[in-house]
Amino acid sequence: MGLSLILYRCVARLARPLVRRKLARRAVAEPGYAEAVEQRFGDYSDMPAYQALPDMPLVWIHAVSLGETRAAAILLRELRMQIPSLRLLLTNGTATGREEGRKLLLPGDIQVWQPWDDKASVRSFLRRFRPAIGILMETEMWPGLVAECQKARVPLVLANARLNEKSWRGAKRLAWLSRPAYQGLSAVIAQSYADAARLREVGAPVQAVLGNLKFDVQPDAEQLGKGQAWRRGSTKPVVMLASSREREEQLWLDVVLQSRALASAQQAPDAVDGEALHASEAPSQSLCSVQWLIVPRHPQRFDEVETLLTGAGLGVSRRSQWQDGPEAADVWLGDSMGEMQLYYGLADAALLGGSFAPLGGQNLIEAAACGCPVVMGPHTFNFAQAAASSAEAGAAVRVDDMVQGIAQAVLIASQPALHSKMQQAALHFAHHHRGAANASAQMIAALLESTEGFVNTGFEASIFDEESRG
To answer: How many domains does the chain have?
Structure first.
């Protein structure tokens, strides 16, 4: 064991009280964080006894948050076809991921919190459940977890793997800790060749580049149809700020209020100078010419966003209050979880959340699968390949800031020919890139078949005998 890992484990152990405090703070806004807290530290006394069944391999998938859990759902669908006897062990790190993950469980499956990355918590987790294989989704790398899985001879796969340039630079700076962790993986399935190159450079055993699992999403026909029906009932084109993050609603609000003020000023030319009018060739009718829909990324911000909008004098209608469809208001607020496909069906164009503040952008693949044109801001490093490919395919456009973004989105939504062209390009783009889920599932099933024997027979001798010796 390296000195770096010993130091890391000591820090992780000492950080336990801080983790508990953070969870308690988050539970104020999201009560889900108060559920089964002791599971995070390896205490499963609140659960019934678990019995491993040799003929039903326990496949462990770790999906930290909402986006990763949705990607895991796509992979899991294919895995269940490849391995019919599969039992799922699902771990999550966030309350939204855990809630979404409940939808994936079948009788016999198990869901617990991700173990905190100290030695005792991880060992307790592995000793309790003894998974045949572990699948980490996208970016989840925990040095302590990898080290303990190596000792327990549990193969780990990093699936749908990505590593953006910022994270790549960080991994290189902390190579003394990150390189052994990446090298400890059994296989890595990368999203893109750029991701694969960065992952290999930090030591990861990249086995294949198969694309993004999220292209294999199958939009919920009921949700999509309901959104489209509601859209037909709107007298205006609908533009959505999709999965918006901190500060982006304020950026949007600043532009919209300025455009409303200028529109009013144009009715009284003497009240404003010509230079000011010329400076704003932005969306002069952006508030009144389209119906705005804002869907915040995180549920704990729903009330905060409503307060921001009403404080600026805008009327707000919340999705949770709708009966037979949207109610008249300046802004519709999407305050529900698990209904993004409904919202994409409702929208004629979408501004991509997370891309107008330096947050890396949210997933635009779901929008493409629903046929919704996307306008991206300058920050898309979390989904660089998908962003570049969608723009090249004509399914999305990139702009420099929120002013340009609103102008472009309003233009797309207001011009039927342009909207139809981008809608068809989006659907073609999504369809063209499918297939990663099936190919990934085949690789994982083959790895499980080749290692299942020694995993099941060597498990106790590797880690638990060592523990019994102290």
So the answer is: 2
Catalytic annotation, residues: 68
Which two structure tokens, joined as six digits, stand for 240? Answer: 């959505």
What does the pLDDT read at residue 51? 74
Cα 447 to Cα 68, 78, 155, 206, 207: the distances in Å are: 22, 15, 8, 14, 11
- CA–CA separation, 171 and 162 (whole Å): 13
pTM above 0.85, yes or no: no
Mean pLDDT over 220-226 rounds to 96
How far apart (Å, rounded) are the C-alpha atoms in residues 400 and 383?
A: 17
Task: Let me know whether 347 and 283 are in one domain.
Answer: yes
Average pLDDT over residues 284-303: 85
Where helices occur in 130-204 by DSSP H, the ranges are 143-151, 165-173, 175-183, 193-201
Q: For residue 7, is it within any domain?
A: no
Q: What is the mean pLDDT of the chain?
A: 90
Distance CA 33, CA 37 (A): 7
Say which CATH number the domain at 69 has.
Answer: 3.40.50.11720
The reply to whether 4 falls in a domain is: no
Q: What is the pLDDT confidence band of residue 455, given thresholds at 50, 70 and 90?
A: very low
